[in-house]
Design a protein that fits this description.
CATH topology of the largest domain: Metallo-beta-lactamase, Chain A
Number of strands: 13
Strand content: 15-25%
Radius of gyration: 19 Å
Largest sheet: 6 strands, mixed
Structural class: alpha+beta
CATH class of the largest domain: Alpha Beta
CATH superfamily of the largest domain: Ribonuclease Z/Hydroxyacylglutathione hydrolase-like
Order of helices and strands: HHHHHEEEHEHHEEEEEEEHEEH
Helix content: 25-40%
Number of domains: 2
Length: about 270
């Protein structure tokens, strides 16, 4: 699965978040504005480019950005160790992931976001004879909650969880909440930035000591981060403190792009250099 953001997307996102003009960044890269705009659009470096100076100007790692331009992707994650876990991808103009987890013995399930279409969600639930107990929303952007009505219509007793200030009080996450799903344990950490109500859910206590799984919405992607043109420093701080402090083998499951790990992002993400 391809990265959500190519090198040009990362440069554009970092430039806009840094409030640096196209003219300044193209000059740093040693390109005309037209050639630099083409680089942002395509992610391809076709002319001699001072990528490191341009990256430094907009606040990302030049070395890591160059690696992405040359084709870096996170090491493949084989999810067989998490038998009760599925990534479900639906597409409508663009693709978005939601995730289904369940307890093997109790057959109780939780859904993290909904994506565009409930049909494949229901197919998995029926195939594994599950009872959907919880619906966790990472943020309320349309692609992540498009079929929330269909899911709630079929499972009216499923408990809804979100960080939306507009949600009823009994549906809002609290800081020290933890939810039991059979033997699994689900906690939450606030990760606003890309969305005001952004939240990350961590599922732990998997069978056979499989690593934690973090459902992050669009806070962070493999090799990038969700756009935040208003409070990017705060968004980065939340990602550093709430996601990248998790154990290195923790899976990072975003709304777009491939699954990655905390270790991979600490070592390769251009926005987060340690």
């Amino acid at each position: 699965m391809s990265l959500e953001d190519h090198a040009g997307d990362i440069l554009r996102k970092a430039r806009v978040q840094s409030k640096i003009s196209l003219a300044e960044t193209s000059a740093a890269a040693g390109l005309s504005e037209d050639d630099y705009a083409a680089l942002e659009e395509s992610g391809r470096i076709v002319k001699r480019t001072d990528l490191f100076t341009a990256a430094s100007l907009v606040g990302v790692s030049g070395g890591r950005l160059e690696a992405i331009a040359k084709g870096w992707e996170p090491e493949p994650v084989y999810t067989e160790a998490w038998r009760e876990f599925r990534m479900i991808t639906t597409t409508e103009n663009f693709s978005v992931h939601c995730y289904l987890v369940w307890d093997e013995v109790a057959r109780e399930a939780a859904l993290f976001d909904t994506g565009w279409d409930a049909t494949p969600i229901f197919k998995h639930i029926d195939e594994h004879q599950l009872d959907l107990k919880h619906l966790f929303i990472t943020h309320t952007h349309g692609d992540h909650i498009a079929c929330i009505g269909a899911v709630r219509a079929r499972f009216p007793k499923a408990r809804l969880h979100s960080n939306s200030k507009n949600a009823p009080v009994d549906q809002r996450n609290r800081e020290n909440d933890f939810i039991r799903l059979g033997s699994l344990r689900i906690t939450n950490r606030p990760t606003p930035g890309h969305a005001e109500d952004g939240v990350t859910y961590i599922v732990s206590n998997w069978p056979e000591d499989a690593s934690h799984v973090a459902f992050v919405g669009d806070a962070i992607f493999a090799g990038s981060m969700g756009k935040d043109f208003h409070t990017p420093d705060e968004a980065k701080r939340h990602i550093r403190e709430q996601i990248l402090t998790l154990p290195p083998d923790t899976l990072i499951c975003a709304g777009h792009g491939p699954i990655t790990t905390v270790k991979q992002e600490r070592e390769h993400n251009p926005f987060f250099v340690y």
